[in-house]
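The material for today's practical consists of a large collection of protein records. There is nothing in a record beyond a sequence line and a structure line. As an example, a complete record with its sequence and its structure tokens follows:
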Amino acid sequence: MKAAIINTVIGTGSVGRIACGTADELLSHGDEVLLCRGRGDAVPGYDSYRIGSDLDMYAHGVLSRITDRHGLYSRGATKELIKRLEEYKPDIIQLHNVHGYYLNYPMLFEWLKGYGCPVVWTLHDCWSFTGHCVHYEYRSCEKWKDASCGSCPESREYPASYICDNSSSNLRKKRECFTGIPDLHIVTPSVWLRSQVGMSMLSAYPVEVINTGIDLDAFRHTDSDIRDSYGIGDRVLILGVANPWRERKGMFDMAKLAMRLDPEKYVFAMIGLKKGQMNLLPPHIIKKGHTDSVQSLAEWYSAADIYVNLTYEDTLPTANIEALACGTPVVTYRAGGSPETVDKAEDDGVRIGLVTEKNDIQAVISSIEYFGHKKPEVSKACRTQARRFDKKDKFREYYELYQKI
């Protein structure tokens, strides 16, 4: 089997790592893989192709910010990609994010309709069936459901447009391009996103859920001196991680929590903050900037008693799973696929997480009080739950899907 995998990046970020992980699984079975990326460096050991150039990507981004026609530029880059695919002759094509200022999606999907091989499209957000946004829960916007996009409340959010609002015509263009593909199979990382696809223009396609996996060799209980270094002592350590922190990721809700809980009993730590954000938060919160160190994250997850994720929108937050893998229970809002990460563990009667309604700070406080200090039986159940999200199993599920279709 010859597979072509297309994504904004490869090897970095959660989606880029999925691209390489599925490629590894294919290669281990003796198949061929071509990794196509819109930006970033090639990863050694793979046959890879760069789509377009940095100049093309920047031009696409600037024009999108003016016209709100994201995905309708990069014609030359897409023409060359199609030429490369025709030379390669893939038996199956795996699409991930086709947004990201590097592709002309009408050109690519017109070619896919004519080429005729099976296509697997993994949706990591909602962009494919809205007129503009990648998520809409924070705004409680459902215009996409009845094709009434227009006057988009998210127009200044990624993929941002600061002058024009073409969300209505964008939705019509996507419907024209993304429907009618003979052998398209959609994958979503969460049951929640599958349910959204089922109410969208893409509802005619088969949808399979393959969760985003994590590296259980990297994310596991890890000893550190964090509690001693920060003078935490026997207080309950509550951790939050985001990249980036924003209001819709719960930054100010975390601040409200820190102000309402007794600092003599509870300590808050937030990782992923920008310097300017640190000044906006209560002084007794431990504030850390962004880190790419898996080791450092595993140490913080392990040191924490409770991981709190107060996001208002997310497809499937892997930070929840990383915390569970390190033995730490999760408290989260009922937002997107976040509750799916803390479904009941295999150990009957042992809770590994609690879900509250959005903005219900008192319910979050009650959940924190319920867990208190981390207990051995809870840590064990958390790690059991995390094994459901082993990235090796998820890559294997992709391979089995390729074989099936």
